[in-house]
Inverse folding.
């Protein structure tokens, strides 16, 4: 049984359709990527999955529970690293992790977790003095401190330098070995290719393709048979662009060129 | 419960690292009082006049209950809303909403710390007045304490309404300061007791901090139990809390 399941998920805000028709089936223990351009509905999708937003319609199950009615249960078992949230500047790293540990019935050892994310040496540093990468590593630690079965990580390397991104990637890879299911929301293709077992491409509120990175590359080759040999998708980035393009009506000039 | 204790401790730690907030909470009321008592000439003279109670008092005596209203206003209208505005701005409220404790507990924690710090500020101001300005002790300590508690809840309710909508710490601080200085006027910081013109006194008595000031002054100097300002404060408290709850933005 999948640990997260969404069928025909739909969510609108006033007049905008944020999520039109999203379908996901995520297995326990995998790193699952939700990939798509900015504004595609990725964050709204995970907000519905975690009970932060109530879906308008569709069938949703997380750990076998309906997020709309079992928010409290899911809060204990799902760690959520939100896009761009901060802590008070004067709060120290060690204080933050101890505070968040106190929110959960059976938290992990804060000291060990800080060690895992490489922040032990900064225990006494104030949040306001941390670099972008250090803040993100702390944010991941806070999402994991409750010993969740699922960790949702939204845009976790946006704004980091290449070294910082690689450090975070290694860290996420390490989480896999704890048996935590990771839902990774990103618009970086190299990140998705490096980390994800499977991924879904979401565009304009719809899941337009799902599979492992090699499957998506093969899928893109089939959906764009007309293109010349050297334009064939060889990595996920090419495949992604081919898949996204094939769902958009090609403009006039593109057909003639 | 453990989470609320942990959050309250964390709020106290953060306050202890914020010099501006410490000054506004603990020292500003006493400093304003001492400045009025020691620097402004003539505050040591008897007020005189017809009023049987005020005639025996020095101007500076009137500033003691007013200093309590300064303590009430500075924490409730500046420290408290800007802390919550800052949490909204930084996404702390949203982040807490994803944990089992939810964002409302950080509000409780902040109310507890604000309550404790405004009581501390008031105690420091009263001690400074009694030791350095030889001010009188209150006629009815019990009545003054009761009025102070009601006024504290009322002023935190005013602060909650600012905190409910402010999008950032700076935004909350701006609105808070504006309300604070308007409130200090109605509380009689510049025109204490009988020095405020009669019609203005009447109007001020129906504003939150003006009612607090008149009730505290009456309780302190043994005038009859100030029913009108007590009723006014109770009504403000109910209305403001309902409004704050209805308009509070969690993210």
């Amino acid at each position: 049984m999948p640990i997260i399941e969404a069928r025909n998920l739909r969510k609108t805000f006033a007049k905008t359709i944020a999520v039109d028709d999203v379908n996901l089936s995520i297995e326990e223990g995998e790193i699952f990527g939700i990939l798509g351009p900015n504004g595609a509905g990725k964050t709204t999708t995970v907000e519905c999955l975690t009970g932060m937003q109530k879906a308008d319609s569709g069938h949703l199950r997380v750990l076998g529970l309906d997020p709309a009615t079992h928010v409290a249960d899911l809060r204990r078992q799902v760690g959520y690293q939100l896009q761009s949230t901060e802590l008070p500047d004067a709060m120290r790293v060690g204080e933050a992790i101890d505070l968040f540990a106190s929110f959960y019935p059976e938290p992990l050892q804060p000291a060990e977790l800080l060690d895992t994310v490489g922040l032990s040496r900064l225990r006494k540093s104030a949040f306001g003095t941390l670099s972008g990468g250090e803040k993100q590593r702390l944010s991941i630690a806070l999402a994991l401190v409750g010993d969740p079965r699922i960790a949702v990580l939204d845009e976790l390397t946006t704004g980091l330098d290449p070294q910082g991104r690689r450090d975070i990637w290694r860290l996420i890879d390490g989480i896999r070995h704890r048996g935590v299911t990771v839902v990774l929301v990103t618009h970086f293709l190299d990140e998705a290719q490096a980390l994800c077992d499977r991924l879904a491409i979401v565009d304009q509120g719809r899941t337009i393709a799902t599979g492992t990175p090699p499957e998506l590359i093969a899928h893109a080759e089939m959906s764009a048979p007309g293109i010349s040999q050297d334009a064939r998708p060889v990595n996920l980035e090419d495949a992604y662009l081919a898949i996204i393009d094939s769902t958009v009506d090609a403009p006039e000039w593109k057909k003639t060129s | 419960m453990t989470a609320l204790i942990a959050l309250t401790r964390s709020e106290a730690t953060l306050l202890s690292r914020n010099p501006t907030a410490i000054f506004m909470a603990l020292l500003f009321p006493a400093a304003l009082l001492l400045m009025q008592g020691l620097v402004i000439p003539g505050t040591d003279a008897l007020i005189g006049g017809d009023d049987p109670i005020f005639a025996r008092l020095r101007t500076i005596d009137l500033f003691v209950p007013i200093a309590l209203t300064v303590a009430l206003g500075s924490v409730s209208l500046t420290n408290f809303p800007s802390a919550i505005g800052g949490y909204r701005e930084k996404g702390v409220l949203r982040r807490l909403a994803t944990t089992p404790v939810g964002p409302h507990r950080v509000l409780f924690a902040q109310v507890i710390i604000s309550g404790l710090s405004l009581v501390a500020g008031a105690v420091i101001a009263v001690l400074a007045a009694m030791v350095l300005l030889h001010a009188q002790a209150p006629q009815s300590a019990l009545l003054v304490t009761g009025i102070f508690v009601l006024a504290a809840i009322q002023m935190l309710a005013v602060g909650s309404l600012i905190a409910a909508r402010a999008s950032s710490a700076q935004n909350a601080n701006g609105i808070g300061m504006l309300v604070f200085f308007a409130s200090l006027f109605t509380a009689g910081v510049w025109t204490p007791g009988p020095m405020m013109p009669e019609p203005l006194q009447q109007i001020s008595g129906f504003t939150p901090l003006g009612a607090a000031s008149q009730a505290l002054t009456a309780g302190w100097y043994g005038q009859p139990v100030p029913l009108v300002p007590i009723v006014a404060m109770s009504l403000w408290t109910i209305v403001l809390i309902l409004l704050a709850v209805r308009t509070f933005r969690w993210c």
Notes: The interface with chain A takes residues 2-3, 6-7, 10, 13-14, 17-18, 86-87, 90-92, 94-95, 97-101 of chain B (CB under 8 Å).
